[in-house]
Write a structure and sequence with these properties.
Length: about 350
């Protein structure tokens, strides 16, 4: 009869024990910290290129003015309703738009570095909601960024909140073991396991698996994905493809369309099987290989620079804390700039000898 630690009888465990262990088992929070770091970098990649036109993009006197926003919010126009945004508080003031924009950059940067995570996690979610509410830059794939920021907000609000050793300052701002320097350069282990870290990561994992399945079902509703030409049209835009290009492609068209069809059917198969292998450690190559392929494909085929990295980040989120600790141990010698100091025993002269390793 199988036992865990020789004292837990598996045959007597309640039926809901695996479910409870999946959602509520306390774990090393390194996975949530890495997810925060990668998500924060992606948010900065989204926001920083907009610095030169922040007032034109987000101001009520910019490209999308008050009248355009009111028209877009009209349900009779058949458009999706606009959400709330702190940027609307700036009104027509370009200077105030700049203040809110750069304050948002600072907030996301602090969140990425792990400083005052309990506060900056909430503010980062507010920043993402605010900047995605404007139709001037709205794109369907960008709204996926709301998923990790929302679950990270939940995780960090409760992370370390109930620790007996937490100070009042830590309860307000969040534990300091989430700081990037302590997490990667110093390589120290977390002070204690966290229920909130596991719950937040699991929420994102399940949600992303549902996104993959929903995306698969959406593709199967389009004839291009059934006929094998879904990649042909993005690769050969009608605005850039000429008659001579098609004539030059004709001699190798059979092999070319076969490779395009094979690639898109592999994409469909990967998405269909995703919930079955995402949590399996033995399928890490399939998980991460597909994520890298999604990054490259979305960038060079569909011209989506942010969706590919989002898929990669989401797939990396399925790594276990033990796997992240192994990666941390491999990266520590590279990231550590100051060598560790090892004290040797005193010599007879009484002089302490310190050597660097």
């Amino acid at each position: 009869m199988k036992k865990i630690h020789s004292d837990i009888d598996l045959s007597r465990q309640p039926w809901y024990e695996p479910w409870s262990r999946f959602w509520f088992n306390p774990v090393d929070p390194i996975g949530m910290h890495v997810l925060r770091l990668m998500t924060g970098l992606l948010l900065l990649l989204l926001l920083l290129p907009l610095a030169g036109q922040a007032d034109a993009l987000f101001g009520l006197a910019g490209w999308i003015d008050r009248e355009a926003l009111q028209a877009a919010a009209d349900p009779n126009e058949g458009l999706p309703p606009l959400g709330w945004s702190v940027l609307y508080l700036a009104g027509d003031s370009a200077a105030l738009i700049q203040v809110i924009y750069w304050a948002s950059i600072v907030v996301v940067a602090l969140f990425t570095l792990g400083l005052a995570v309990r506060v900056t996690a909430v503010l980062s979610w507010v920043v993402v909601v605010s900047f995605l509410s404007n139709p001037a830059i709205a794109y369907d794939a960008d709204f996926l960024l709301l998923i990790p920021t929302f679950y990270l907000m939940i995780g960090y609000v409760f992370y370390g909140q109930f620790s007996r050793d937490a100070s009042i300052l830590d309860r307000i701002l969040g534990p300091r073991d989430a700081i990037v320097d302590r997490l990667f350069v110093r390589g120290g282990a977390s002070e204690e396991s966290s229920h909130a870290a596991n719950f937040a990561v699991r929420l994102f994992q399940v949600h992303f698996a549902l996104v993959m399945v929903a995306s698969l079902l959406h593709k199967l509703n389009m004839a291009e994905w059934w006929s094998g030409v879904a990649f042909f049209y993005p690769l050969h835009s009608p605005y850039g493809t000429t008659r001579d290009d098609l004539i030059a492609l004709a001699p190798s068209s059979a092999g070319y369309f076969f490779m395009l069809s094979l690639a898109q059917y592999l994409v469909l198969a990967w998405q269909f099987a995703f919930p079955f292998f995402a949590w399996k450690r033995s399928f890490r190559i399939l998980l991460l290989g597909g994520a890298v392929a999604a990054w490259i494909g979305n960038m060079f085929i569909f011209g989506l620079p942010l969706f590919g990295p989002f898929v990669l980040i989401a797939c990396l989120n399925y790594l276990t804390p033990a796997e992240w600790r192994g990666i941390q141990n491999r990266l520590r010698p590279v990231l550590t700039h100051v060598p560790a100091r090892v004290e040797t025993p005193r010599h007879k002269t009484g002089i302490k000898v310190v050597k660097h390793v």
